[in-house]
Design a protein that fits this description.
This is Multidrug-efflux transporter. The chain is mostly helical. It has 17 helices and no strands.
Length: 465
């Protein structure tokens, strides 16, 4: 086997190089995608406080469903990687065509659920005008969901062929388009209508359809897709195969939804502690999310590396690729933890000039530094398991970690309810919720590491028997 015939040093160096070459364009693409949301909030903030509130609230709902779509469509990475590793290129076009039907259906369902969620805006104490603007923002931006579902199907296809450059280039172009159209429509420049926050929704929804069109155009002309070109003929949906894809992808979507909704719930609970704590919490959370893009990109690359090795019938190389990927993520976790701990005050000052928010943010960033190691470990090990086509167990573990530990422990420490015998003497506020996050992520990392160790070793032993 490859992992045994080459020297350990050469094998490790080769695997690190291969994973990095696969992951860094996706990292740039992920950062560009995150940048679209940052641009929406930043540019709307210069219109009015009401518009900023509407966009922030609308984005908080829309982004949770968007993350669920990303997770559900991640099964495409696994399926195409396995077919690529097995050399069954003739089957990939059919998988992609069915994946596009799945993506469209998932996008339509997400669009409907997102619009349904706007009913909550009128029952959480929002000003009626803000609730109306937030609902309109969601109604408009959700029109891009079907395109996004199809785009993620092609995203999984191209990255599993080791072709990640289009993901990076199209995401950067999407960000530039988003910023330019925001400038036109949010502020009414060049004679365009002044739409405020709704202009952001128009830009993002339109951008999603254009990104899908750009990906289709790239696939039509790039030589790397010729052996697996999926657009040779029309194909109606095959429901049994789509159902099989959903059985693999829905647990990932639920996992992503659980994580995003848990962080969203914590943000709502922290809002009770006042402007200083909620502002500090959002800053620390935003910076942590940016840092998380690195191990997340490694994780997506790991699905391809592990899936291709298993498709080739080489579980030893799949195990080797898994642990090299975990090691790279953990190494980054150590570096990011040290950086956040050492420069937490500088990070806080870069976001705000309010001294009270800076002090609170610096405290929360210490907790963010603590969970870097476990966060990097849990996303890497979960991604490796998905490369093995194992998705339900990571879902169960992460549901337990976020909703079984992080939220309850955070509530008990943050609120210190008198009815609970082991609650702290005084409420810890936002810090209590962050301690809960550290605990939940650590539990997830430990259980997922054990699962990966057990599964990867078992597959190797089975191949030798």
């Amino acid at each position: 086997m490859q992992a045994n015939t080459a020297s350990p040093r050469h094998s490790a160096r080769s695997e690190v190089k291969a994973l990095w070459q696969l992951s860094w364009p996706m990292l740039v693409g992920q950062l560009a995608t995150v940048g679209m949301g940052v641009a929406d909030v930043a540019m709307t903030g210069h219109v009015s406080a009401g518009e900023l509130a509407a966009v922030s609230i609308g984005t908080s709902v829309w982004s949770i469903l968007l993350v669920a779509v990303i997770g559900t469509m991640m099964s495409m990475n696994t399926l195409v990687a396995h077919e690529t590793g097995a050399g069954q290129f003739e089957r990939i076009p059919h998988v992609v065509r069915q994946g596009l039907w799945k993506g469209f259906g998932v996008g339509v369902v997400a669009m409907l659920l997102t619009n349904l969620a706007t009913l909550l805006f009128y029952h959480i104490g929002l000003d009626r005008a803000v609730a109306d603007r937030a609902a309109l923002f969601v109604h408009v931006i959700s029109l891009g969901m079907p395109a996004f579902g199809c785009y993620r199907a092609l995203y999984g296809y191209t990255t599993s062929l080791n072709a990640t450059k289009p993901v990076m280039v199209i995401a950067i172009l999407g960000l530039l388009f988003n910023v330019f159209v925001n400038w036109l429509l949010v502020f009414g420049n060049w004679g365009m209508p002044r739409l405020g926050g709704i202009g952001c929704a128009v830009a993002t929804a339109t951008g999603m359809w254009l990104m899908l069109a750009a990906m289709i155009a790239w696939i039509r002309v790039a030589p790397v897709y010729r052996a697996t070109y999926p657009f040779t003929h029309w194909e109606w949906p095959h429901l049994p195969e789509i159902a099989s894809m959903l059985r693999l992808g829905v647990p990932i979507g639920i996992t992503y939804f659980a994580e995003a909704s848990a962080f969203g719930a914590i943000s709502l609970l922290v809002a009770r502690f006042g402007v200083v704590q909620v502002s500090a919490h959002q800053i620390a959370l935003n910076f942590s999310a940016l840092v998380f893009m690195v191990p997340l990109s490694f994780g997506i690359g790991m699905i391809t590396r592990v899936g291709q090795a298993l498709g080739q019938g080489d579980p030893a190389r799949a195990r080797f690729a898994s642990w090299i990927g975990v090691a790279m993520s953990v190494a980054f976790g150590v570096l990011s933890a040290a950086f956040i701990a050492l420069f937490r005050w500088e990070i806080a000052r870069a976001y705000t000039s309010d001294l009270a928010v800076q002090a609170m943010c610096a405290e929360l960033l210490l907790f963010a530094a603590l969970f870097q190691l476990s966060d990097a470990t849990q996303v890497a090990t979960a991604s490796a398991l998905r490369g093995y086509r194992v998705t339900r167990q990571p879902m169960q573990i992460q549901l337990l970690a976020f909703w079984g530990f992080s939220l309850p422990v955070g509530y008990l420490l943050g609120r210190a309810p008198s009815w609970f015998p082991w609650a702290p003497a005084a409420p810890m506020g936002a810090s209590g919720y962050w301690i809960g996050l550290v605990l939940g992520l650590t539990i997830a990392a430990a259980l997922l590491t054990w699962s990966l160790q057990h599964l990867s070793r078992e597959r190797v032993l089975q191949s030798r028997s």
